[in-house]
Amino acid sequence: xxxxxxxxxxxxxxxxxxxxxxxxxxxxxxxxxxxxxxxxxxxxxxxxxxxxxxxxxxxxxxxxxxxxxxxxxxxxxxxxxxxxxxxxxxxxxxxxxxxxxxxxxxxxxxxxxxxxxxxxxxxxxxxxxxxxxxxxxxxxxxxxxxxxxxxxxxxxxxxxxxxxxxxxxxxxxxxxxxxxxxx
Amino acid sequence: xxxxxxxxxxxxxxxxxxxxxxxxxxxxxxxxxxxxxxxxxxxxxxxxxxxxxxxxxxxxxxxxxxxxxxxxxxxxxxxxxxxxxxxxxxxxxxxxxxxxxxxxx
Lengths: 183, 105
What we know:
The structure holds two protein chains of two kinds.
Chain A: H1 3-24, H2 28-48, H3 52-77, H4 93-114, H5 130-137, H6 142-162, H7 175-182
Chain B: H1 8-28, H2 32-56, H3 61-90
């Protein structure tokens, strides 16, 4: 086994274990910390799959920015009162069995696919370094790139709108309507 | 870097596992923040399969797609966490999804 295959196996196992921890740990802060482990493991998987630029972006954007945002909000909000997982999920059992069956079928199909020949545009192995990604991003994918920038601007405006305070500097008060509904 | 050091099937299996973990998290958890983390798990699983196919087909387009997915995920998280904070401040002072069952109040 080559070094890449060994790295992939180790960090794939780590990614799965930390993913299970994300959804199993009762405390959301521990979930966020497990999410960091998951994202870093996936970043290493990107490296073994010839995508070093994506590894850097994954570490900076996901493990850096997004998880910090998560941790901020978790510490801001959910310290009071634990929210427990659902108990009554037996109605999902048929879906789970069918899902497992489909996954097994898909796994067999994928393993069978490994031996087959693939029609590739070129035989040269490509590596996703910043230069080649940038050429694609500003050439073939220029329009989606610009659309993404508009999306980010919209998200920025939306997040600021949602996070604003009321006119008087107080928390916006919708209490009247709430009382009318509850009473 | 050799050609087929990690078979495509193994990448896709890891991706499917991570996606399933995310689905189970979304279904079973009631804390909105953990549900968001599970959504991130699913987005990452899809990214992993995009990168795997990119490597398999010797084309970089999949990696660019993964980059776009990351951008959309970042936008989604910022707006989503803003929504959660707004609901928490204005409504029940809780992050339990079961208490967020009305569209208007």
